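2024-03-11 09:14:02 INFO worker-7 job=invfold-0412 stage=load source=structure_tokens
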């Protein structure tokens, strides 16, 4: 399925384009924006989107007799790039096939970059262009291309600096509200900074014990939340930040003395790994062999998943051996009678 091609002037193609644009934008608004609120004002953006689609529907963008110079301005070219970027993000959370979820966002991102290039975004950056680049970076992350996303983020930061977005608002002709917020941040910083040094003290205190228990509870909650969220939504397995947090939690709990032998956490670790492996070996994900660089996990996450799988397996075996030495019966994790049920022999899709 292509988007924004030359045949959109036909009535059927135009209706399909408008319907898909609304569909993918609403998926972005429902599944992406609440967790990554990149757009400065999503309601204002939706108004701009409706204006663009109205112009498209009336032929303003294709009919020479109705042509308007509005959409050739750098600002609005950047806005078109942002529209395409949000559509690409929405596609990733749609119900289309895995291959389509890889191809369509890639095509939309390419067109978004073309729009930004026409706006000369490197020499004349705009807020719209920066927002588009941030959304594109999020799409790349979710598509397993975290290295490309990181490189793009560096460029985006420099463009933000070119717009002086990193400067103190109080030094410019900003609103009184912005100036007040800036002063509040400075005042808070002056008050808290001296106290930071005092926090470097002996850890063998009751505060350390509370911090240790809080860390253990946080790791447990992170794994439980992932498992519960996974049963309700597709978001956890299609969002880079959620995947990263979950795998990191498994790794840390598998090597920390406080948690690596905890039976409850071990059960959560195994169930979580099983979710990842089941997704990696599902028929839809298996199609990724036909799509270049479109695996649903990035290479670092694939290696991390393999590592935590081996570490958790070793911890489970060590715990079982310790129980045998003490002539104690070790109950299997909840919902599992066989180790192979948690750790399938199938390899992670490379």
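2024-03-11 09:14:09 INFO worker-7 stage=emit residues=350
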């Amino acid at each position: 399925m292509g988007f924004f091609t030359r045949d959109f002037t036909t009535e059927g193609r135009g209706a399909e384009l408008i319907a898909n644009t609304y569909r993918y934008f609403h998926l972005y608004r429902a599944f992406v924006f609440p967790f990554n609120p990149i757009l400065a004002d999503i309601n204002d953006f939706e108004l701009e989107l409706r204006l663009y689609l109205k112009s498209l529907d009336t032929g303003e963008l294709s009919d020479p007799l109705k042509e308007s110079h509005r959409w050739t301005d750098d600002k609005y070219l950047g806005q078109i790039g942002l529209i395409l970027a949000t559509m690409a993000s929405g596609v990733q959370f749609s119900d289309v096939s895995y291959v389509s979820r890889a191809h369509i966002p890639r095509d939309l991102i390419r067109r978004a970059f073309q729009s930004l290039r026409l706006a000369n975004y490197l020499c004349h950056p705009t807020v719209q262009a920066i927002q588009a680049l941030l959304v594109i970076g999020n799409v790349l992350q979710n598509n397993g291309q975290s290295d490309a996303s990181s490189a793009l983020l560096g460029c985006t930061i420099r463009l933000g600096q070119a717009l002086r977005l990193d400067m103190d608002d109080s030094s410019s002709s900003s609103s009184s509200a912005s100036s007040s917020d800036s002063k509040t941040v400075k005042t808070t910083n002056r008050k808290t900074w001296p106290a930071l040094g005092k926090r470097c003290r002996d850890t063998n205190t009751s505060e350390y014990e509370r911090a240790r228990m809080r860390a253990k509870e946080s790791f447990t909650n992170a794994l439980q939340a992932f498992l519960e969220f996974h049963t309700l939504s597709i978001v956890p397995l299609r969002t880079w930040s959620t995947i990263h947090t979950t795998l990191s939690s498994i790794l840390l709990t598998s090597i920390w003395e406080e948690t690596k032998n905890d039976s409850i956490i071990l059960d959560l670790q195994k169930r979580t790994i099983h979710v990842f492996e089941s997704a990696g070996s599902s028929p839809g994900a298996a199609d990724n062999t036909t799509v270049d660089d479109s695996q649903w996990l990035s290479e670092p996450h694939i290696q991390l998943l393999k590592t935590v799988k081996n570490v958790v397996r070793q911890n489970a075996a060590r715990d079982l051996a310790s129980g045998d030495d003490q002539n104690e019966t070790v109950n299997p994790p909840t919902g599992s009678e066989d180790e192979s049920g948690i750790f399938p022999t199938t390899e992670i899709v490379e």
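2024-03-11 09:14:09 INFO worker-7 stage=report msg="The longest helix spans residues 206-232."
2024-03-11 09:14:10 INFO worker-7 job finished
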